[in-house]
Write a structure and sequence with these properties.
flat, mainly alpha
Length: 108
């Protein structure tokens, strides 16, 4: 499959977008209250991710972005839960991930 330079940039932006949102999620989970620094940093992180999202949507069609974003986000969350938080990567989790990815790709 050939990717145009515009598509390659969109893939890169989606990876950046997922990374920023994942970091923001981790900050939100760590925040003890709304008045904490972590909560404020998470809100700013999400604000920054909106600019990346806007740029990505200007480059590609919505459906293509939704599929790639969802797939990348699922993969990142599985990776982080296993590597960073020591969750076991059970057969159930593998089957669920495969089924979710199949559903994501079949919806388009």
């Amino acid at each position: 499959m050939y990717l145009s330079p515009q598509s390659g940039l969109a893939v890169f932006l989606i990876l950046v977008w997922v990374a920023i949102c994942t970091y923001g999620d981790m900050l939100f989970k760590r925040a003890p209250s709304i008045a904490s620094w972590d909560f404020t940093a998470a809100a700013v992180t999400y604000l920054l991710s909106s600019f990346v999202a806007f740029w990505t949507f200007r480059l590609q069609q919505w459906g293509w972005i939704a599929i790639l974003w969802s797939s990348t986000s699922l993969t990142a969350s599985l990776f982080l839960s296993v590597v960073m938080f020591g969750e076991p990567f059970t057969i159930r989790r593998r089957v669920a991930a495969a089924l979710i990815l199949a559903a994501i790709f079949l919806t388009e």
